[in-house]
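Support request, priority: normal
Reporter: lab tech (M.K.)
Component: structure prediction queue

Hi team, I submitted a job for Putative metal-binding protein from Neorhizobium galegae bv. officinalis yesterday, and the status page still shows it as pending. I've pasted the exact input below so you can check whether something in the sequence is tripping the parser. The sequence length should be 149 residues. Please let me know if I need to resubmit or if it's stuck on your end.
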Amino acid sequence: MRRRQFICMAASVVFVPRAAAAKGAKMIVHKDPYCGCCGAWASAYEASGFKVTTRNEDDMDAVKSGLGVPASVHGCHTATVDGYYLEGHVPLEAAEKLLRERPALAGLAVAGMPRGSLGMGEDPGASYDVMAVPRDGGQTYVYLAIRPK
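Reply from support: The job had stalled in the queue. We restarted it manually and it finished. Here are the results:
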């Protein structure tokens, strides 16, 4: 009987949903107090299992600078989770992949406020890139390309 229990337990680990890597992860979202899309973005993360704390900031540039977010990828809000930052409207699937794979990155970024990105309304034609920012200060690169289905 113990062998059967072990096999069942091992199989359950293999088939854990991808969101489990992020389940319960503590996230701090820094945002402008007057921005509505930031709240929608944070709510989506909270609904997916992240433990979200929101902080209204008077000086978002100082927050971004303090975390080392390159100006070329600045977005709307900045979140921190498990030693990474998420800059702008990073989709859930990108954050889940980041936390599951744990690459040597400082964080992920979606520059600007792309139409159809998480928190910016639903748009099946949304097309934008999620950029990876290496910890070593190297060149950013496309981590995940969001394209129309």
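Residues 1-19 have pLDDT under 50 and may be disordered. DSSP finds four helices and seven strands in the chain. Let us know if anything else looks off. Ticket resolved.
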